[in-house]
Amino acid sequence: MTPQSTAHETTAVTRQNTNHPRSVAFRKAREGQWSQLDKLVEKALKQGLRSLSASELHGLPVLYRAVLSSLSVARKTALDRALVDYLDALAGRAFLAVYGSRRSTRGALRRALFTEFPRRVRALWPELALSAGLVALGAFVAIALMKIEPGWYDAFVDPALSAGRDPQASTETLRAALYGGGEMGEGLGFFASFLFTHNLGIGLMCVALGFAGGIPTALLLFQNGLMLGAFLELYAERGLSYELGGWLLPHGVPEIGAVIICGAAGLHLGRALFLPGRKRVRLALSEAGRRISMVVVGTIPLFGIAGLVEGIFRQSVTHDPTRYALGVFNLVWFFAWLFLAGRGSEARA
Amino acid sequence: MNDVDALEIVGPEGVPLRFPRAPVVDRAMAFAIDLCALFLLASISAAILVLAGVTSGLLSVAGLGLVFFFAVRHGYFLFFETHWQGATPGKRLLGLKVVSRDGGGLSIDAVIARNLMRDMELFIPLVAIANPAQFYGRAPAWLLIPASLWLLVMMLMPLLSRERTRLGDLVGGTLVVRVPKAPLLADEAGRDSLLPPAPGHVAPRFEPYQLEIYGEHELETLADLLRQAEQGNAADEDLVLVALTIAGKVGFLGESPRREPARFLRRFYQAQRAHLEGKLLMGKRKGSKFDRS
């Protein structure tokens, strides 16, 4: 406003002055606040919230709420679209700066692993039961069929995977397969990390395929069960069950456990898609997605442990009682973790 | 802002905020940039690891590399979307952001969930297309058709869904929006840069009945015209034409529209807006001149 025009307003057209739209005064009174927030938000979005000083950080939510109230008033009373659009955009950007991401607090990882993960897994018990049931069913079917006709083995286990461990192999070969690998020496670290990434990849796929209604997940679980059952029966038939147990148990507990958990997560997703209940599918899906993400994160250390045991321990320790000792140890901590951890804070939460 | 392209999010304060939806093309470009960054990151670390492996002669270094690649591939999006306020470098370059649909903060759960599905949407279908024999294994041939169809639907979800969301957004309960930006334009009614009326003339005045004719739509159109005139983008003849039309319609008597159309229009805009806003306060809205209330 130039002094000249002010003079003109006051002398010549006083009536026009009172006739100013209300939104003009509204805007004049608040413009300063808006541009203040504009600058803060610009900085926060460009350089992150950490670049703000303590007082700026303190002012951000206060100014944000002030602008929100301006926006609400402007939408209802101001007939200047440029003004409403500006406030809309400013409030939107401020929202992104204020609520952009929730940063984790200290101890988040520990809480996630020892409280959140076991609690989420327990909450998934119906899917967990189904997932474990599918694996068990697969194993049972494979064993039953192989008892009738050992040739079924080839249908259950891909020849590429069995690496000579099939019904045609001699008992000695089968036994040697359980204790081989010790000569790998230095390559064990590589083998362990290969197993870790490979298995974790399969676990993640199990979850993602859950979106296809859980059907591919269920198939994958069943197929894994078939493979497991076929191996069990192959070795049992030769009287090598004890030796196979020592070979399988140490890494099998975390690995099969993690696969079953991933499968349960995938089935949960499929359930949200097909049986959302009273909710809209979109809401059911996003709620399920958030519930299972912590579950999936928790399986990463499981796959890691399994990879280490399978890649290093199993290859270098061939003493059966030692293998069993580790297997039992794994069983104990695995179930203790899943079924006991995080109970106390459940009551608090 | 077109309503079809606007996404509404209600924040914790209860005020609905409108965000422009991120166009599919922008999202694809952001993703391409991220893929390039990912590739660059992977190749640099691969070079370092190969060098370290060769000099030390340890196979374990390769194992470390394997784990590292896995972490980079799955952690890239996770890291940036949690640490860079919901934007990966690609999204940041294109001015996009991930927000939580429920209006709360973007939680780590949501970010994990939306990125878990990335495999399903992109890598699994790509592998299935590139190498079906390996992907489907020994599955029977008839199974390939429904499986491939399903994968195709997953992949094209951003084009098929009403809100142009990809699967990950559906599962994570997130949306990708464009960071809204609008300059604060000058208030045409608050601009007092009017010259004093020429000697012997009074500023045009309008009576309430003259302001009953037009509605909000005409008001906005007039505001746009005034802004153009301000920037010198409107021809004088046009202004005269508009001013005369308005004067004729509202029954304004006087020479002002012909002699000084810009001033007349500005005065009219001011009076009309004050009038309509006054009525708005009483709860009466007049959308356009066809609105009879």
Question: Could you walk me through the main structural features you see in this protein, from its secondary elements to its overall organization?
Answer:
The complex is a heterodimer of chains A (349) and B (293). Chain A has 16 helices and no strands. Chain A has helices at residues 3-11, 14-18, 22-47, 54-77, 81-99, 108-123, 125-148, 153-156, 159-162, 171-179, 188-208, 215-237, 241-274, 281-316, 320-340, 343-348. Chain B is mostly helical and 293 residues long. Chain B folds into 2 domains: 3-178, no CATH class; 208-281, no CATH class. Chain B has helices at 24-56, 60-83, 89-94, 108-130, 132-136, 141-155, 157-160, 167-172, 216-230, 236-250, 256-259, 261-281, and strands at 6-10, 16-20, 96-100, 174-178. In chain B, the strands form 2 sheets. Chain B has a two-stranded antiparallel sheet with strand order 1-2. A two-stranded antiparallel ribbon of chain B has the order 3-4. In chain B, helix 2 (60-83) packs across helix 4 and helix 10 packs across helix 12. Classes of the chains: A mainly alpha (349), B mainly alpha (293). At the A-B interface, helix 1, helix 3, helix 4, helix 5 and helix 11 of A face strand 2, helix 2, strand 3, helix 4 and helix 6 of B.
